[in-house]
Amino acid sequence: xxxxxxxxxxxxxxxxxxxxxxxxxxxxxxxxxxxxxxxxxxxxxxxxxxxxxxxxxxxxxxxxxxxxxxxxxxxxxxxxxxxxxxxxxxxxxxxxxxxxxxxxxxxxxxxxxxxxxxxx
Length: 120
Fold this sequence. Notes:
alpha+beta, three-stranded antiparallel sheet, three-stranded mixed sheet, 42% helix, 120 residues, 6 strands, 3 helices
């Protein structure tokens, strides 16, 4: 390949990377996922996670994981908050609330297959 072609290819690659870096990226959010099983009086909870994966993807991944584990459950939700502390408080409230109603709280050791950050 000639020097001119190398230069043109480099210019295209640089322009592409500048455009990609200018695109907005999703900010990582603190969250946990929760899935009640009203028929079994259980609630499935994850640890706190920091993720930039869309919530719909996370909810689908957690749902799939529970199905794979043969855990019957209702709807999956992954609440988020403005910071780690507020999400931790939401999770603690969900756990306390369900224990007070005699539901079994099951903590699921889970990481999304879609690139989710580490559990905390």
